[in-house]
Write a structure and sequence with these properties.
The chain is an alpha/beta fold. It is built from twelve helices and eleven strands. It has two domains: 229 residues, Spore Coat Polysaccharide Biosynthesis Protein SpsA, Chain A, CATH 3.90.550; 72 residues, no CATH class. The strands form two sheets. The chain has a seven-stranded mixed sheet, with helices on both faces. Strands 5-11-7-8 form a four-stranded mixed sheet.
Amino acid sequence: MKMKISVIIPVYNAEKYISKAVESALQLDEVYEIVLVEDQSPDHALQLCHELTQKHSRVKLFQHPDQGNHGAGASRNLGIEKATGDFIAFLDADDYYLPNRFDAEKELFKDPKVDGVFNAIGTEYLTEKGKEEFQSKFKEISLSTVNYPTEGEEVFKGLLSLTTKTFGTSFHLNSLTIRRAALEAHHIRFNKDLRVHQDSEFIIKLAYHCYLKTGNITEAVAMRGIHDDNRITKIVKYSPQYNQRQFLLWKSLNDWAISNHIPTEARKRIYLQYKSFDLSLKKGLIKYCTILGEALKNPEILKTKYRFTYYNR
């Protein structure tokens, strides 16, 4: 039986790219529908979205009830609510799928215990400035993937660096396919209050609540577009703005870990991440007094990879 996949695309300021993103999904037989959620774009993206719905019957367009701007997390949540396929996949409006996007899924989802599958994605430089900014902040990344095949609880542990082997970078949302029933059963949604990193938080929560499995991790199934307006390249790593955004991410995860009573080892790792960014935002004498107090309670915090970056500034 052919898979029925709903592809959710949040659309904001993407008039240059949205048509290619949609066309790349339409080429795939497994795509049952494409759910565009337009988020009050300042460009002509909304007009293009209307044109795409008129041209293709599988393309559906939605906006927030107030037609306002609510961010990618809220837009993806709205897309999940409107989706009618058996599976959910995501695609950023400035990225696109490759023809092999769902090849692994077609086999792996025959196993009913598998809730979600994730794969590798590639990087494409769309502008020279975007390329320079990206490469000045990150290593040359031709393939965003994990280091070895894994599934179930090991995925969650790998994302938190709790495995004996190095798991690698977190997988990209563009590479994920999840059963819609699994999202509903565990009430998993994006944190609409996080304007950035809501995808990272979603993936960690998903890996805890659902049974995820690696698919194709050796070759790209989608391409991430790097251009002048990528938010990921605009913030200097370990700058106050970067630290603040990381703090909000890990604080949210820490609150979630406590309320869900997740295992002690994982809960402590999340707490240390949260606390290290919390400490990075403090200044002056109070900062060092707080570090000392925290180190006495949790000596492990002095071993976090953020210690020297933050504490010695």
